[in-house]
Amino acid sequence: MVGRDFRARRRTRIRRAALLVALLAIVVGLSPTASSAATPASVAVFGPNVMVRMGDTGLPGFVSVGSTGLTKSLTVARNEFESFQIAVKGGSALATVNNVVVNGAGLTGPNSNTIAAGNVWIARADDYLTTTPSDSEIYSTSPCSSSLNCRIPDRLVPKKDPILGVTRNAFPFDVGANQVRVVWIDVFVPTTQAPGTYSGSLNVTVGSTTTAVSLAVNVLRLRLPSTSSLAGAYGKLSTTAICGASGAHGNCMQIPNSSPPNNQDGGAFKLYDRYARAALNDRVSVYLPSKSDQFQFGNAQTGYNVFARPLLKGTAPTCSLADAAPRTTNCVWLPGAQLTGMVIDDNSAAEAGAWKQRAVQDGFVSRTYFVCDEVGGGTYPAFPQASDNWQ
């Protein structure tokens, strides 16, 4: 009896010891090691040839905030914009990185020449919250569901609005754990900038820690023209769409000074003008509003004279860093920039003829295009001498 009891107790002790060893192994396996320890927030620089979008968390090149050695070199012609990106990744800890701010300064070059700080544009890439993407342009297989919202890259929020010259609410911003947020940097080299290499830096502050990004810009002697040599006109920006994108949910009556609602002499046309001037920074010409937006010849002449005509003739004033804010002039950053095409969207021969007469008068008939669905009804004879201007 004693022997059997002793052997039973011994087997119990062995089983308990084995269980303890197994539990210790599990605990050790769950304990963080040097390789799995929480990582801090990090910063990386991309572009201009490789760009990153919000959500790209697996890209290389990130270094912990506060590190040194981040650099970016650009080669830019005069009268040109060049872009790159600064990406900030949240750490692996289950916490949000708060108060991210990016600041820039001027660049210093040969003979004490400078690229002004105002010509280094900084903007935060923002996103749009959705539950179901409308197509597969971004995702081949939708990761969204009713329980999983997707944040899709959508817009740039400037630190300082290049159209009006006022400060916007781009900074500070937060970055969630294991998430990536992107800041776009546009360097504008004015047409009169002296050639040479210009140096400076940008500071990325995450919380209380700052990371410096050294920036070198090689300005070429080459000077790009302000207007593209390839004529064209892109998109058709209806004022309804513009009003919607500007926070009015498609209701142009919510836009200041837009009475009557869709009249092109009102606020809706002013919004179109801002889109058109922004696109000209990239030498892109966008359509004028269409007939569906009441852009008939008779009711659009005031808006045309104020907004469209200077862009078609290349007579819009050039923006200056010395302009008072908010800027009141309808200026362009590339001196003398022109729309390379004016598109008339109307099925009326009288409308086409009136616009052609105005185009001849203002000297851009060779850049006037007429969009017509189902040519007929006397429309074609309105442009008998401009058959190349038909689409």
Describe this entry's structure for a reader.
By secondary structure, this protein is of the alpha+beta class. Helices cover 20% and strands 27% of the residues. The protein is built from five helices and 15 strands. The strands form four sheets. The protein has a six-stranded antiparallel beta sheet with strand order 2-1-4-11-8-9, with no helix packed on it. A hairpin with a 5-residue loop joins β6 and β7 (114-115). It is globular and about 70 Å long. Residues 1-36, 256-265 and 384-391 have low confidence and may be disordered.
Entry summary:
The protein is built from five helices and 15 strands. It has 391 residues and is α+β, with helices and mostly antiparallel strands.
- Low-pLDDT parts are 1-36, 256-265, 384-391
Element pattern in H and E: HEEEEEEEEEEEEEHHHEHE
Q: Choose one word for the global shape.
A: globular
Helical element count?
5
Strand order of the largest sheet: 2-1-4-11-8-9
Mean pLDDT: 77
Strand content: 25-35%
- Helix/sheet category: alpha+beta
In whole angstroms, the N-to-C terminal distance is 107 Å
What Rg do the Cα atoms give? 30 Å
Number of strands: 15
What's the helical proportion of residues? Answer: 10-25%
Largest sheet: 6 strands, antiparallel
Topology (elements, then pairings):
Elements: H1 2-30, E1 42-46, E2 63-64, E3 70-78, E4 80-89, E5 97-104, E6 107-108, E7 114-115, E8 120-130, E9 150-158, E10 173-175, E11 180-189, E12 196-206, E13 209-223, H2 239-248, H3 267-280, H4 301-313, E14 342-345, H5 349-362, E15 368-371
Parallel strand pairs: 3-13, 14-15
Antiparallel strand pairs: 1-2, 1-4, 4-11, 5-10, 5-12, 6-7, 8-9, 8-11, 12-13
Helix pairs in contact: 2-3, 3-4
